[in-house]
């Protein structure tokens, strides 16, 4: 109840708030003074009674089909002294244990790493599915959880067509080294091959898969990014026997040498997580084809002679 001016009664009258409809109604004449109003108060209220627990949440997390109970299990809360009445219900629940405890911990680790890498939810779900298949085979016990989680994310990224380099994932892993992640990846591929009876599809990596992210890290404009993409596409016509990521890094380095603000090799190496020596070797292979792979429209006001010689 409250007071508000009613245009029909021509005075302030008591009004009734209909929270279900969002209406403010005059209690004397029934006129709707305001409709579809927004309730800015808290959506929840505390249902903790006198237990001293002020957690306002009255629902659990979202449904997770990868868990045995689909994420809908009941957790018995504790009282103010860490007990629940006589404590019998809490003790019984703890005694039974949680069969999905290891999965929940792994899924949280996957979600945290995916957030740090700014990955979409489809990749996170795919990584969780891969880990669940490993857990079903009971082959994760005693293995490095961080390495397994990182490897699951690496494989999921490749399968979803959004690959990340091992170095990128390693930088976000909690202590897992590049070597450990590599071993975990091989272990996962081997285990799932046994499960499926055939080789696991990892997805093909192309140099273009890394371009936008690398170009963004360097701060290239739209025109330069377009030129890099076209150069990478044309380079596929030649037999350049280098890894996709090293080709992408070398082409970015090549095109930045044609601009006024030339980027040093060290900056390209940091932005692409590719070693300077690797970029130099790929650049050496690409240099003879520069005139053929770089778009003509991009070379109009630029001189190929400004490209440094691979021998330099």
Automatic annotation (TrEMBL):
Q: What are the record keywords, sorted?
A: Metal-binding, Nucleus, Repeat, Transcription, Transcription regulation, Zinc, Zinc-finger
InterPro entries in UniProt: Cyclin-like_dom, Cyclin-like_sf, TFIIB, TFIIB_CS, TFIIB_cyclin, Znf_TFIIB
From the Swiss-Prot or TrEMBL record, state where the protein is found: Nucleus
User: Under the cellular component aspect of Gene Ontology, which terms does the record hold?
Assistant: nucleus; transcription preinitiation complex
Q: Name one Pfam family in it.
A: TFIIB
Is GTP-binding found in the keyword set? no
What sequence ranges are listed for the domain TFIIB-type?
2-34
Checking SMART domains in the record gives: CYCLIN
Query: PROSITE patterns under this entry?
Result: TFIIB (PS00782), ZF_TFIIB (PS51134)
Main localization category: nucleus
CDD domains under this entry? CYCLIN_TFIIB_rpt1
Q: Name one GO molecular function term.
A: zinc ion binding
Family assignment? Answer: Belongs to the TFIIB family.
Q: What is this protein called?
A: Transcription initiation factor IIB-2-like
Q: Which gene encodes it?
A: LOC107825738
């Amino acid at each position: 109840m409250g007071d508000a001016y009613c245009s029909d009664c021509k005075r302030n009258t008591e009004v009734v708030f209909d929270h279900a409809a969002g209406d403010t109604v005059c209690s004397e004449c029934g006129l709707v003074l305001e409709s579809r109003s927004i309730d800015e108060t808290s959506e929840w209220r505390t249902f903790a009674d006198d237990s001293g627990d002020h957690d306002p949440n009255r629902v659990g997390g979202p449904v997770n089909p990868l868990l045995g109970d689909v994420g809908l299990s009941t957790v018995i809360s504790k009282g103010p002294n860490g007990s629940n009445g006589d404590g019998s219900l809490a003790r019984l629940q703890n005694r039974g244990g949680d069969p999905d405890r290891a999965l929940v911990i792994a899924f949280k680790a996957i979600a945290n790493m995916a957030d740090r890498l700014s990955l979409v939810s489809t990749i996170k779900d795919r990584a969780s599915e891969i880990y669940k298949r490993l857990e079903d085979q009971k082959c994760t016990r005693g293995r490095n959880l961080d390495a397994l989680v990182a490897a699951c994310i690496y494989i999921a990224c490749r399968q979803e067509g959004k690959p990340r380099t091992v170095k990128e994932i390693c930088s976000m892993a909690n202590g897992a080294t590049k070597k450990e992640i590599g071993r975990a990846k091989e272990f996962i591929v081997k285990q799932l091959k046994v499960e499926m009876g055939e080789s696991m599809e990892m997805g093909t990596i192309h140099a273009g898969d890394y371009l936008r992210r690398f170009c963004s890290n360097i701060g290239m404009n739209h025109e330069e990014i377009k030129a890099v993409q076209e150069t990478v596409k044309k380079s596929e016509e030649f037999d350049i026997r280098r890894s996709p990521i090293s080709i992408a890094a070398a082409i970015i380095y090549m095109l930045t040498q044609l601009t006024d603000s030339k980027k040093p090799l060290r900056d390209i190496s940091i932005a692409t997580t590719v070693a300077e020596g690797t970029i130099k070797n790929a650049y050496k292979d690409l240099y003879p084809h520069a005139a053929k792979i770089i778009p003509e429209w991009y070379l109009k006001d630029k001189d190929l002679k400004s490209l440094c010689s691979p021998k330099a």
